[in-house]
């Protein structure tokens, strides 16, 4: 298993999480549905407000932030309070159309408290396969960020389906990180990082703190199923890591529910999994 202890770390010259954050200027942060939703399925505004505050601290420290936010479907269900059980695609897409507005309304008002504006980008797989569109997305991202606006991205769920959809925001955030030439991608999930086995089922599951070889890690861990609201589970997180590492972008998989997550990661007081590009 690819667990690297501190002495290995020194030998391999790998950075710690706090060193990685200190060095990163351009950071993409992905927030999963399970992090955004409370247990009753409603959107967790307190979390969003606190998160906006932490992002504004990053920005005060001369960092640039792009957010990839899930939660359209969860917000849709909690807003309209029906169709929760409907599995048909058109109902799910309709829920996303309703929820996306609510979600962005929450983000807008949370960031407003810290004098920050937000801009929305809804993307689909096709957008990343087309040179002209990727150039436009890149230009929009650079312009928003240069002007101090926080871009908030989600998949265009009401349009994208089947072969046209990326299907999960882990991969979408990886593609965004590559497109924007980010230094670091932070995936906020409902687990502390990559474990040797599913920690919700096995007490002896061990957190893997450093990964440089995703392929090797995949072979050594037991991969469970996806959770309640999110799409991908650990599989899509490893796919995202594989994508970004190829472009020398580091990635942190961490638990979004931890208080003051971003600052505590930066202080090195939270344990998570750091994926580092090979030296
Ligand atoms: N785009 C979906 C939503 O906003 C979530 C996809 C995901 O959780 O990865 O509900």
List segments where confidence is low: pLDDT < 50 over at least 5 consecutive residues.
1-8
Q: Helicity level, as a percent range?
A: 40-55%
- What's the CATH class, please? Alpha Beta
Kindly provide the radius of gyration, computed on alpha-carbon positions and rounded to a whole number of angstroms.
18 Å
Q: How large is the count of helical segments?
A: 12
Q: What is the general shape? A: globular
The average pLDDT score comes to: 90
Please identify the structural class as seen in this structure. alpha/beta
User: What's the helix-strand series?
Assistant: HHEHHEHHEHHEHEEEEHHEHE
What small molecules does this complex bind?
glutamic acid
Quaternary organization: single chain
Distance from N terminus to C terminus (CA atoms, Å) equals: 19 Å
DSSP summary, beta strand count? 10
Main sheet record: 8 strands, mixed
- Give the count of structural domains: 1
User: Might you state the CATH topology name?
Assistant: Carbamate kinase
Description:
With 279 residues, the protein is of the alpha/beta class. The protein has one domain: 3-Layer(aba) Sandwich (Carbamate kinase), CATH 3.40.1160.10. The protein has twelve helices and ten strands. Helix 9 runs parallel beside helix 11. The longest helix has 24 residues. The N terminus is likely disordered. Bound molecules: glutamic acid.
């Amino acid at each position: 298993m690819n667990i690297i202890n501190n002495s290995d770390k020194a030998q391999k010259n790998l950075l710690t999480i706090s060193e990685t954050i200190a060095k990163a200027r351009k950071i993409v942060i992905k927030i999963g549905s399970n992090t955004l939703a409370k247990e009753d399925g409603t959107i967790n505004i307190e979390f969003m407000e606190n998160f906006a505050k932490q992002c504004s601290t990053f920005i005060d420290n001369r960092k640039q932030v792009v957010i990839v936010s899930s939660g359209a479907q969860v917000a849709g269900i909690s807003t309209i309070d029906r169709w929760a059980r409907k599995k048909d695609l058109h109902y799910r897409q309709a829920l996303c159309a309703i929820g996306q507005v609510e979600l962005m309304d929450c983000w807008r008002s949370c960031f407003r408290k810290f004098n920050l504006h937000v801009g929305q980008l809804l993307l689909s797989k096709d957008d990343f396969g087309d040179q002209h569109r990727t150039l436009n997305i890149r230009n929009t991202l650079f312009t928003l960020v240069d002007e101090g606006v926080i871009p908030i991205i989600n998949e265009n769920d009401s349009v994208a389906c089947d072969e046209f959809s990326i299907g999960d925001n882990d991969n979408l955030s990886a593609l965004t990180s590559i497109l924007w030439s980010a230094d670091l991608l932070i995936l906020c999930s409902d687990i502390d990082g990559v474990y040797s086995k599913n920690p919700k089922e096995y007490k002896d599951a061990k957190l893997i703190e450093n990964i440089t070889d995703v392929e090797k890690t995949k072979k050594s861990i037991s991969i469970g199923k996806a959770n309640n609201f999110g799409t991908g589970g650990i599989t899509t997180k490893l796919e995202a890591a594989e994508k970004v590492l190829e472009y020398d972008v580091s990635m942190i998989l961490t638990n979004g529910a931890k208080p003051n997550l971003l600052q505590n990661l930066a202080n090195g007081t939270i344990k998570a999994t750091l994926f580092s590009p090979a030296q």
